[in-house]
Amino acid sequence: MSAAAIPADQIAALFRDHKEAIVHFLLQRVKCPDTAQDLSQETYLRLLRKDGLAHSDNLSGYLFRTAERLAIDFVRQRQRLSARLEALPDDTLCRLPQPEYAAIVNQRYRRLLDAIAALPAQCRHILLLRKIDELGYREIAEQLGISEKTVQRQLVKAMLHCHEYCRDTPP
């Protein structure tokens, strides 16, 4: 069976229909509501970036499988970090990054700042409240006087914009 392109509006409807179930599913695995929300957004983004799906007849299964893989990756990464931190001796010195690495990080940082600056005002504000101030969706919605769904949509829009801007802008 060949891969079929799934229209973005169909993916949006799929995500809208399964959003709560996906967040609940992820929450059982990662044990953190904010992480579950973030991983559900990443699940949606992965489907949007997918050029085609071989099995378009079971999109909800694919959606949950993608969420499950993201949760597994998150848990593994958290376990590896914990193991590395426990393995470090107490007298380990903090080494400064090499100049080449610092230059690359600085370029990426500037591109990300340019991408954020290019966002519409409300979209940028929501992104900063979520990622910098670490507010939850409900808190952002209450602070801005908008719905949680609007916060979610604007956050997805901001993340997609930043991802595409940083990917498409040469270093």
UniProtKB/TrEMBL annotation:
Q: Could you tell me the superkingdom of the organism this chain comes from? A: Bacteria
InterPro entries the UniProt entry points to: RNA_pol_sigma-70-like (IPR039425), RNA_pol_sigma-70_dom (IPR014284), RNA_pol_sigma70_r2 (IPR007627), RNA_pol_sigma70_r4_t2 (IPR013249), RNA_pol_sigma_r2 (IPR013325), RNA_pol_sigma_r3/r4-like (IPR013324), WH-like_DNA-bd_sf (IPR036388)
**Biological processes, Gene Ontology terms:** DNA-templated transcription initiation
Which intervals hold domain RNA polymerase sigma factor 70 region 4 type? Answer: 110-162
Keyword Transcription regulation in the entry? The reply is: yes
User: Which residues does the UniProt record annotate as the domain RNA polymerase sigma-70 region?
Assistant: 14-80
Q: List the molecular function annotations (GO) for this entry.
A: DNA binding; sigma factor activity
**Family affiliation:** Belongs to the sigma-70 factor family. ECF subfamily.
Q: What is this protein called?
A: RNA polymerase subunit sigma-24
- The organism encoding this protein is Methylomonas koyamae
